[in-house]
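Record format v2
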Amino acid sequence: MYAWIWRHLPGNAWVKALTSLVLVLGIVYLLFQYVFPWAEPLLPFNDVTVDNGMAVAR
Amino acid sequence: MAERHDRRRGRIAATVGVIGELLITAGVLTALFVVYSLWWTNVLADREAKRQGDQVRRHWAASGPGALDTKDGIGFLHVPAMHNGEVLVKPGTGTDVLNEGVAGYYRKPVKSAMPWDKQGNVTLAAHRDGHGAKFHNIHKIGTGDPVVFETRDVWYVYKVFKELKETSRFDVSVLDPVPKESGKTAPGRYLTLTTCTPMYTSDYRYVVWAELVRTEKVDAKRTPPKELR
């Protein structure tokens, strides 16, 4: 999978390495900015209030 | 014959390789999520809490005596035992509020009292981990420790009298005006801190109760009461 991506990136090894780095940083940005904030409330790690089993008390 | 055998082995090896890469990817994603929850959300929340806290203090400094503006926050909570400075207190306990790195007072399921009410229970919630983790060190609070609620004009000094180290997340009676589980039977001026426990999960709730011992008028220099010095 990653070997396939590497083969299909244009340029020589340095250009490929730089492109890969940019791609990785872009993916991390997307994860931190959009994916994780969306996923977090769905996971049972961070409910701090007592409630009667309804949605989070406001 | 041999060629076909080789080709099949090549395909199996490729499949195993892809599965391996996917597993590594899943591991990296999980690690990134941990970094996000335990570090990045704190960075964001602390920044936001600082901004809002400064705003409240500026507002206090600017406005003379008059109506209290509860929209920005009603005051700051100081718990020396938690070693985390001051925590802004805002209305509501929804994730949108608590994720700003503040403590929220309950509006549901049991409405919180205000520190200046003649009697009642001031009930607060904040995150144990991530999003500022304002109640991270709640387990370091012991009986007798001071909890100070700072409003514009008054320091409310409470003393902790009971910790409930684990209770059900449905145990809303801890928020009652007279919380029976704390051992109290008569109305008084109580303060309740709630957060999740054990750390890093939210299977149960951790509760700390305190009782008002005295109030102190805020002076011109905002000299903190002796519990905070």
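The radius of gyration of chain A is 20 Å.
Confidence is low (pLDDT under 50) at residues 54-58 of chain A.
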